[in-house]
Amino acid sequence: MCKAVWARVRALVSRTTSGARSLREDRGMVTSEYAMGIVAAVAFAVVLYKVVTSGTVSAELQAIVKRALDAKA
User: Are the C-beta atoms of residues 41 and 47 closer than 8 Å to each other?
Assistant: First the structure.
């Protein structure tokens, strides 16, 4: 029984160390995923900025703010 327990422990330890080894091999991939996320966020921000600063949307937003400020309480 003792040999079976030690065999099980060795199997679990070898899985853990091989898992840690595979994590070390993927370190650069995490950085590239963050970079792609930042690029996507910046692209979305640029598109949103262009939409909000366009003439039509800007006029509508100003009208909404003006109506809100002129509203009777």
Answer: no
